[in-house]
Amino acid sequence: MHKVMRTFLTFAFLLTASVVFSQTTISGIIRARNDGTLPGANVYLRGTYDGASSDASGKFSFKSAKNGNQILIAEFLGYEPFSVEVQLNGTPIQIDIELKETFNKLDAVTITAGMFEASDKKRANTISPLDMITTAGAAGDVFGALQTLPGTTTNGESGRLLVNGGSSDESQTYIDGALVYAPYNSTAPNTATRGRFNPFMFKGTIFSTGGYSAEYGQALSSVLLLNTNDMPEQNQFDVSIMTIGPEIASTRLWETGAITATLGYANLGPYMKLVPQNFEWKQAPESASGAVSIRQKTSGKGLLKIYSSYDFGQFTLAQLNLNTNRMIDYALDNRNFFVNASLKNVLSEKTSLSTSTSFTHDADNIAFDSTSVVKQLHGFHLKEAFSHEFNQKISLRAGAEWFVKSIGQDFTSQQDTLNGNYTNHQMAAFAELEMYASKKFVVRSGLRLEHNTYMNNGKLSPRITAAWKLNTHSQFSAAWGQFYQNPADNFLMVTDKLGYEQATHYILSYQSVHEGRTLRIESYYKEYHHLVKQSSTAFYLPETYSNNGYGYARGFDIFWRDKNSIKNGDYWISYSFLDTRRNYLDYPESAIPSFTSKHNLAIVYKHWFGKIRSYASLNYKYTSPRIYNDPNDISFNSRHTLAYQTLDVSWSFLYKPNIIFYGAVTNLPGFKQEFGRRYADAPDAEGIYKSTALVPGSQRFFILACFITFTRKGTENQLDKIQ
Amino acid sequence: MKTILFSILFALLTLAGNSQSNEYYQAMGENLGRYANCKTVEDYQALGNTFNRIAAAEPGEWLPLYYSANCFIIMSFIEPGDAPKKDAWLDAAEKSLDQMLQMVPGEAEVNALQAMYYLARLVVNPMERGQKYSMLSAQAVGTALGIDPTNPRARFIQLQNNIGSARFYGKDPKDFCPEATALLNEWDNFKPKSPISPAWGKQQVAEIVNSCK
After folding, report:
1. Can you give B39-93 as a three-state secondary structure string?
2. Cβ contacts (< 8 Å) between B26 and chain A: which residues?
3. Which of A120, A437, A606, A624 has the fewest CB atoms within 10 Å, i.e. is most exposed?
4. ipTM score
């Protein structure tokens, strides 16, 4: 017995000894394909503690007491793990390992031609959602903030988005994939408007200045894609007190969802009494709005988002009627009801289905000089989109859409009654294939088919875009595409014998993002065909209209942003050059459209003052003189406006974790602003068309606000380490 | 005899089993000792890698994941620039944290570490992430203290958050001195579950208390 045990123990001891004493050294070097050596990689034998990290030159070396066949693994963040079988028998092993970069869409090349993306998702984005809110001059207007980006032109008398030589009708706004039919507030003619939506609603924005995806149609120039916030993080109650009125919002969460209700009231009356105005307001702009936003997680991984709002606004403005040379009251009231819903369902890891829908009812009641105009818009949009990833590199997105737009306009004056209306169902289908050849090259090609029931006309628009990454921080993108849009409502109300207006985009862009500095240079060429052309001033006759208009726009945009060079400071500079001509509408010849300007410059600077917990933003904008037509002059579009200049300042002060004070002034130095002239319809007795200058409502605009947030743990809402 | 042989074999096997677990404790102990010598990003990277190796070999243990996440978080704090790099490390830490939250859902130490992780995300870009991540960090501290109100690391992170906030709002951070002193005095009352369980933080609290004098 003893003998057996002794033998056994000896055997066991020998076994252990052999394990302890025969050590194998494993060493080598870790390289990345193309990119040199990799320091800090983890190299080890599977299932053991034996291993090492590669040093600064990518070398590693470690000893193992293990024996026999083992699996050697090498791992490094962002690279495919490598494994190989090795024989451990005491003989040193020398092994050189080459790791392959993981294909990860987050840091792969992205299509940037014509695209400005502001979101948390991308780490190297050019602008962030916060920028949208804090840009001075925009004063919380999404569209205003975008006007500091290249490719845009500021029209002080409109406030709308004008992109790369396109008119404001050529841009469309989508919220969570569904079309917004009336994104702007109604205003009096020649006064600036603002967007209807609070920028705090959105977690991300994609602003495309052209060459965009086949998923979007009915826009010749640009699309703005706004994505609303997901689930709120906590119950809260917000109070905003502004010089123009108060707003309250309340958010309640439950386990799988949340609801936010918002109520707001604005009245510019008191403000306008204090600050001198250029206009004579009989009743200052006043508005009331209510909104409800619901978030509900669905079974699976879906999220249902519903946003619905109702706005009411009214004002009365005294304006000079140049035809009668009398002051008349122009009164407007607007009601807008909007519902937007989206549901994304994850069917499997690779497949998802999303539904977006919106409904808009927008009604304007306008009264002036014993004339009344009632405008009604009913809009509906439903989109079903399907996404599938065949593998990491190839994905498809396809879908179908149904748009309904119904317009009615009743014009009643003492002499005339004019009624106009039309309803159109627009059917569309799209498919888009995205293929990565490697982390460095991607092509996205798509097709979009649209059919308009009112004009009974269909179109197929092909689009293609590609991006090529030169190195870790710079890349080229190119895009080409055909874009179609229905003629404007005013024309369709008169005739259905019109076809689509068309634009073809060619875009080439370069972008470099490195250490907080971004440089973008983009050049584009846009051809317009089949624009609506009027052959006479008889706007009510169908035969006045044809699709014989045409034009072009070409130019380049430069964007430079530097978040790095100035401590706590951040600035960007946008410059756009635009050369464009059109022969459309009632133009007698090919001419520069009055809404465009050749040079556009915006400089934005933001600074964080840690000691006083303040965030200051300053921006300067310059728009070169625009062209306008003077009927007293023989040549068409021959007059120049003043150059537009403004210098806006805003200041946010974080008083307490839950209390923010905000103040902003536009056009601080008081640059003279004039947007051309407005003329009488007919010449007076001396044969002269009377006119008056178009000026902004006031030279400067001031706003003061206080935002208070109440949470259960209000004081714990810290902004730690922000200094 | 057969019985005896079997019992010996069994004993040997148990011993072998124990030695496996001894090896784990030994490896963890040794590597926890290496914390003291870590100064650079590279040092922490090597140590984090080591814990990752142990984690891979011991899929049932959460502590190797804890320390690996801890190393990657520290790396993000000490790296001077390069935000994408910091975010990549924090992605790695997040992965470990998610694994731990699955493995040991009611572990206050994990939630406390998560609070520190959120703080690290915030520090990468305070301007844009301040609001979101300060809230998430406070929530994670809240969860940790909900599980164990005496956990000194959760209390330490909360204290640090409060002091940071006070400093930011121009209040006197010394208001928190009594709290810091109390935490330091009570520090040793908390008994870590094992010799390799998280025990760090006393030094940092002592520094806060010293700055009060």
Report:
1. CCHHHHHHHHHHHHHHHHHCCCCCHHHHHHHHHHHHHHHHCCCCHHHHHHHHHHH
2. none
3. A437
4. 0.82
